[in-house]
Structures are given as C-alpha cells and as structure tokens.
Design a protein that fits this description.
mainly alpha
C-alpha cells in the first residue's frame, strides 16, 4: 500500500537509483557523445521530471567525495545530473550535506566508543 503514494521513501529510492546510474556511467576519461546521451536519457527517465532529486544526487556526490580519490569521477557523475536537468540552485546545499555525511563517516560508531589512552599518574 505504501508503494502507491509518493513520499520521502520513494524520493530516497529514486536518489539511490540516480546515484547508481551516475556511478555506472561516469568515467575516469572523457565520455563520448553517445555515452553521454545514453546516460542523460536514463537519468531523465528515472528522475521523471524531478530536477530537485537530480540536484540532490549531484550535490551529495560532490560533497561526499570532496578531497578523496573518487572526486574526479563524482564530479563527472554530477555533471551528468546537470545535463539531465538538475536544479543547479539546489546543488550547493546538497554539497554541504554530502560533506556532513562524509565527516560522520570518519567518526567511529556509537557502539564502539573511541579508545583513549590515559597517561600514567
């Protein structure tokens, strides 16, 4: 029954699909015109007119991978989102969210507190 109504869960699934599509199509090299056209068409079809979700995908990829080895590929993936019609005004807020998520990933989980050494007295 929940599948019949659009909502946050549906949006999250769509963003996950868009992210997977961009990661599959993004290359370490310059894409050919045919590759770009195919990727953009698939993104547009999956986004179904939701420019905000394309912007979310682009921003999260850029922010999350900023400064790591995947950054060039993440930027190429984000560019595909822009070509597919992402609302570019929304991308900066999602870049900030991607950075925040990357920072959280660097911290140990709550179930495993950081071990601290206590200096001898």
């Amino acid at each position: 029954m929940a599948r019949d109504r659009p909502g946050p869960d549906h949006d999250r699934l769509t963003v996950a699909r868009l992210s997977a599509i961009t990661q599959r199509h993004a290359r370490w090299r310059e894409m050919t015109a045919a590759e770009t056209t195919a990727a953009v068409a698939e993104l547009r079809e999956t986004a179904d007119g939701r420019a905000n979700l394309l912007a979310e995908t682009a921003g999260l990829l850029i922010g999350f991978h900023e400064g790591d080895l995947e950054e060039p590929r993440a930027k190429a993936a984000a560019e595909l989102c822009c070509l597919a019609g992402a609302d570019e005004a929304l991308i900066p807020q999602w870049i900030a969210e991607g950075r925040r998520r990357a920072e959280l990933r660097r911290h140990p989980p709550f179930s495993q507190p950081e071990q601290r050494t206590v200096p001898p007295l």
